[in-house]
Amino acid sequence: MRLAVAGSGHRPEVLRRKTLANNARLAIFASALLMPFAIYCLVTGTLLPFMLAAMGLAGGMATLALHQRQLFDEAAAGQVIAIMAMGLLLTLADARFADVGMAVASMGPILASLIARRPLRRQAWWLLAAIIGLAALATTFGMPAIAVPNDVLTTTSILTFLGCVGIVGHTSNRINAAYEVYDKAQVTAYRHLIEHVQDAVIRFSSTGEVLLASRSSEHLFGCRRYELTGSGLGERVHVLDRPAYLSAFADANLAGRTRTIEVRMRQEDPAGATRVPRFIWVEISFSPVLESRGDGARFEVVALYRDVTGRKDDETAMAEARRAAEESSDAKSRFLATIGHELRTPLNAVVGFSEMMTSGIGGELSPTHREYAGLIHQSGKHLLEVVRMLLDMSKIEAGKFELQAEPFQVEGLIEPCFSMVEQLAKERGVTLIAEVGKGLPMLVADERACRQIVLNLLSNAIKFSNRGGTVTVTLKRQGQSLNLSVSDKGIGMAPESLQRIGEPFFQAQDGLSRQYEGTGLGLSIVKGLVDLHDGTLRAMSEIGAGTTVTVLLPINGPAIKTEETAIVTPLHKEPAAAPINSWPDEKRKAQ
Fold it and tell me: Are the C-beta atoms of 89 and 101 separated by less than 8 Å?
């Protein structure tokens, strides 16, 4: 009711309001015409015509005043009540049950259904029922009617009935005209929409014949619309896609289900430059017209055809790019694995023979030659470590790093790892501290991988610590996981570097001017090993204050078994860790 009526410049609600005003004016006009007759009857001693004329005049003027104050619902209620009141008065004046007054009263609900809201419609019908009941009681018990001469009653009833019929007929005509214009406007709007929408719109009959094709279908298929009738549209579907096309159409035509498919369809060259057609990808959405169920329990179908060739080309290009990237990644992993194996054999010889030279097995060396042999041995070990990390990284990326998960005492990891990095810590003047919680459970994990995690974290912490600093390793239970933390008081990392922790070959200090050597694979290997254990890697750092790297490993291995680990309910909150320095805590970043 509140939608615009295209082409008329009005709205149904506006037309309803105008109809209320016209009805009020008609009531005033009809009552004014009846008034001379009513006054004559009043002079001769009959009050009924004057009462009816006065009621019509008062109702018209009152509802017109309400309309001018924009009380439209109250104006509608006033007109309905006025008609039903006049009907009640006529019913009481006539002793018969089925009289003109009952007909006049029944026009109240009719008028309410045309111009009133739903609550007033229900009330009008209840009021009519009350009038009918009152008339039935009057007829049954012989209640005295209002004394009116028969000729005056007949004339008054006819005039009142004609006036009410005129008001109801005028209202019905105006409302009907409004909806005729509205329906025409809707049809025009839908036709305009179909003709100018970008997607091709085709309507099929219940037997599958093309009833309508939009103008955009000519652009989509490169032909005239009439060429799509008959078998012209079905023959354009690629022969390999016809089963899917027919199945989707049957679901909409027979079962009344909406289906969307993507098929290849032939498109002609609209310019006629070439006679060779090409196939394009078209997304088709079949929608049944549920109100059009015809013979044989079939539905008419409306289909939207959309050219999705560009999207398909993009998907193909993306899939090709993904395939190329995967092949490149596999090639990189194979290269690293191959070159690592090829380098390890000669490097082992370099390290072994240089160690023999420094130990004097091949004969005594001069101090200069001994220094050179030591440098060769140190460089060979460094290069061998790089090769080992490359091999581990390639295995992790290729998914070939197999875990040998077995239960072991996690406390035994600390001392061997401290022994392996002790020399590096002495060279840098770094003190190693271990804080191991009591009563730690056995950890189900790959002990070699866990040792490598601790070694890599310790090496990084020592490398980036200031001279005279400390590196602390903490082991404790945290719920169903083991908390392994390595913290230092070194140079720290910026927030943007924290976000990239775990990326292969990434270093916070990059370029030729960097102060700290390394490949940037240590934390990448740690992250890969932690992920293989279904664990979590977290880092917290602040520039100039140090870094804390925390690893959470499931106590029962990659597949947590809650029934064995149980749920730890903390009885008291653990105290917060002491701040590293006096810098504000809000500067601390976490990942």
Answer: yes
